[in-house]
Amino acid sequence: MMRRRALGKGLEALIPVKENEVFQEGYRMIPVDVIKRNPYQPRAKIEDADVKDLVSSIKDKGVIEPIVVKRSNDHFVLAAGERRLKAARIAGLKEIPAIIRDLSEQELLEIGLIENLQRKDLNPIEEAQAYDQLNKNFGLTHDRIALLVGKDRSTVTNALRLLALPKRVVEYLRSNKMNAGHARALLALDDEIKILQVAERIVRDNLSVRQAEALVRKIRQKPRIVPAKEKEPNIVMLEDELSKLLSTKVSIEWKRNYGSIMIHCHSVDDFNRIYDILKKIRQPKT
């Protein structure tokens, strides 16, 4: 029978009471070279600079909190404690304290996700991809994922929407050139070209989220078309008379005490024809 686990309460909620006692009372020392990375680890990479302080602490006091691993044939798979393991290797340790747990593939992903979320180590894309794995690979609904990580359902749904953005924008998010707030603003646009143009502007000009939102609103605004006012009947009548006289379209614009007349022509010959008509009209009768 599958044990029931509390959700949304952090990493401790995934560790049964008995194993919590092991945390307090004992652990095993495991060679660091037989521990493999969690294949479901949401965080793509940990840089050496990210664990610089932890390396110094381990050299001084050792690894205080054991890592959590899963036995797999002749090696172990890391479940929680990737920063500690990396720092221990950099510090030159041959062994590291560890608690061995019997974990499912889903639990490996859940623990890795929760550990990183608690530390706020994930970029928006890494977080979204972890949710996506829980949804597609293990069948968890958005509601269940939200309970698991202690967030609102809408937060999970909005995070997953980021994966639909163009690849270039995804890379901007992955490299922290823009944040989730910028990305949510871009999702309001339904044209990929516009999304890429605004994303480039955000990165180039270092726009804040509010500035990005304002830019998107401006782009989404449709130009307001003001209906033209109806012309006075006498103006329409004059346009008609002149159009018949010149055998072409004539437009008259009149504002208060001044106006303009536009005579349309379609070629040089047509222009000369109209010119001859006007010239004859100007000639005095003899």
From TrEMBL:
NCBIfam families attached to this UniProt entry: parB_part
One term of GO molecular function: DNA binding
SMART domains: ParB
Keyword set includes DNA-binding: yes
Family: Belongs to the ParB family.
Protein name: ParB-like N-terminal domain-containing protein
Assigned keywords, A-Z: Chromosome partition, DNA-binding
Domain of life: Bacteria
Domain ParB-like N-terminal: 28-117
GO CC, one annotated term: chromosome
GO biological process terms held by the UniProt record: chromosome segregation; positive regulation of sporulation resulting in formation of a cellular spore
Gene3D superfamilies named in the record: 1.10.10.2830, 3.90.1530.30
Classification via Pfam families: HTH_ParB (PF17762), ParB_C (PF23552), ParB_N (PF02195)
